[in-house]
Specification:
This protein is α+β, with helices and mostly antiparallel strands. It has two domains: 137 residues, Fructose-1,6-Bisphosphatase, Chain A, domain 1 (2-Layer Sandwich), CATH 3.30.540.10; 110 residues, D-Maltodextrin-Binding Protein, domain 2 (3-Layer(aba) Sandwich). 38% of the residues lie in helices and 25% in strands. The strands form two sheets. It has an eight-stranded mixed beta sheet with strand order 2-1-3-4-5-6-7-8, with helices on both faces. It has a five-stranded mixed beta sheet with strand order 10-9-11-13-12, with helices on both faces. Helix 1 runs antiparallel to helix 2 and helix 5 packs parallel to helix 6. It starts with a helix and ends in an 8-residue tail after the last helix.
Length: 267
């Protein structure tokens, strides 16, 4: 499809980094899975992809600031524009040879998300959106699913693991949602979860404890696909609070209601 000049810059950076990740993904599957060795290898793959993205974006748009998972904050001369980048979302999947990982790139202009991209190089699925221009997966226009009842829905959730999140609260939320829906999915990449909501593959999603680079691009892609995204209180502070709830209008509202419920008795 024909991209704008801005999106073309983002796509070229993502595809170049994606080729690097795809090569490394093929190698990591041949390594013995352990914390030593493959873990270091994945970190190298992550940093290499981030360096590619940083170099490409900085060359195309000199002066823009960056917020990156590995590099952190890079202040540029242009304070009005900021790239928000995750070079490898779904590191654990990558380490275990599961082809569910993604590059996430978003551009913020004067505090507003204006462009977003999520790319899974293992499946060559590229999700893009620009503010006011709609959302796409490769050449296909995206629209969130139209289901209006939780009982018909498949909902994504980033269930916390060792060293992450408040497990007790997560279990309360899971119990309150799981009894109302058709299925719960834990994909291992928040960026892809949000892209899947935009594509109608999942009807909704919630997670806590995320970083801005996990969700910035996905937020815009869902909005441009006709969906609703908020923080846990229904506001717009997702990048600040790390909590996110997404879906179409009805499912977003229903999820917010379920997540505010107290612990319930087992049934």
């Amino acid at each position: 499809m024909a991209y704008s000049a801005l999106m073309r810059v983002m796509v070229e950076a993502a595809r170049k980094a994606g080729r690097s990740l795809a090569r490394d993904f093929g190698e990591v599957q041949n390594l013995q899975v352990s914390m030593k060795g493959p873990g270091d290898y994945v970190s190298q793959a992550d940093r290499k992809a981030e360096e590619i993205i940083y170099t490409e974006l900085a060359r195309a748009r000199p002066g823009y600031s960056f917020l990156m998972e590995e590099r952190g904050v890079v202040e540029g001369e242009d304070a009005q524009h900021r790239w928000i980048v995750d070079p490898l979302d779904g590191t654990t999947n990558f380490l275990h040879g599961i082809p569910m990982f993604a590059i996430s790139i978003a551009l913020e202009r004067q505090g507003q998300l204006t462009a977003g991209l999520v790319y899974n190089p293992a499946m060559d699925e590229l999700y893009t959106a620009e503010r006011g221009g709609g959302a796409f997966m490769n050449d296909r226009r995206l629209r969130v699913a139209g289901r209006s009842k939780l009982s018909d829905c498949v909902i994504g959730n980033g269930i916390p693991h060792l060293g992450r999140g408040h497990h007790g609260n997560a279990l309360i939320e899971l119990r309150n949602v799981m009894g109302e829906v058709s299925g719960i999915r834990r994909m291992g990449s928040a960026a892809l979860d949000l892209a899947y909501v935009a594509a109608g593959r999942m009807d909704g999603f919630w997670e806590n404890g995320l970083s801005p680079w996990d969700m910035a691009a996905g937020i815009l892609i869902i909005r441009e696909a006709g969906g609703f995204v908020s923080d846990r209180d229904g506001g717009a502070a997702m990048l600040d609070t790390g909590g996110i709830v997404a879906g179409n209008e009805a499912i977003h509202r229903a999820l917010l209601k379920q997540l505010k419920k107290p612990a319930t008795a087992a049934r």
